[in-house]
């Protein structure tokens, strides 16, 4: 998984192994948003929906290959993978409707953050707005927190809390 802060970090394990990425990712051209329904996704339920036995590894994409592709080519739907997305959608089905509505309206990259329920969305169109994309869809946009357009912030290591 990735988070975007003082440069960019690559997280593995349960998110506890954090490795900086050089050079840090920059804000992609276009608009970048986050959408958060009022409901949350209990982390235990989401992980339980993975159906893994103790010690069993997740099948799927090699995280290091995804990281390398993201560093080389930037953010795209093909490199934004979250193994917890489907299990979270089982807990809160509206997350799937949010993703579908955003993708259908032209957001090129849409992904659940962590175990939910925040979704981030990127469109190459600077005027794209998830509030417009979700209006009239099978989700209640009035009950959601929408923030954007956003940009990545990069700071030197150790300088986040200095004046």
From TrEMBL:
Keywords of this entry: Nucleotide-binding
Gene3D superfamilies named in the record: GHMP kinase, C-terminal domain
UniProt keyword annotation of Signal present: no
Pfam families per record: GHMP_kinases_C
GO molecular function terms attached to this record: 4-(cytidine 5'-diphospho)-2-C-methyl-D-erythritol kinase activity; nucleotide binding
Domain GHMP kinase C-terminal: start-end pairs: 62-134
Family matches, as PANTHER family: 4-DIPHOSPHOCYTIDYL-2-C-METHYL-D-ERYTHRITOL KINASE, CHLOROPLASTIC (PTHR43527:SF2)
Protein known as: GHMP kinase C-terminal domain-containing protein
Species for this entry: Hemiselmis andersenii (Cryptophyte alga)
């Amino acid at each position: 998984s990735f988070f975007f802060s003082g440069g960019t970090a690559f997280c593995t394990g349960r998110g506890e192994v954090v490795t900086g990425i050089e050079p840090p990712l920059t804000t992609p051209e276009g608009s970048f948003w986050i959408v958060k329904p009022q409901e949350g996704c209990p982390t235990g339920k989401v992980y339980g929906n993975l159906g893994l036995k103790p010690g069993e590894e997740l099948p799927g994409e090699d995280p290091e290959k995804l990281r390398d592709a993201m560093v080389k080519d930037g953010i795209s739907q093909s490199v934004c993978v979250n193994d917890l997305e489907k299990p979270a959608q089982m807990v809160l089905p509206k997350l799937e409707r949010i993703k579908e509505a955003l993708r259908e309206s032209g957001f090129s990259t849409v992904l659940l953050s962590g175990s939910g329920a925040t979704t981030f969305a990127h469109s190459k169109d600077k005027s794209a707005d998830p509030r417009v994309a979700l209006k009239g869809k099978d989700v209640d946009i009035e009950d959601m927190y929408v923030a954007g357009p956003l940009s990545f912030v990069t700071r030197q290591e150790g300088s986040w809390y200095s004046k």
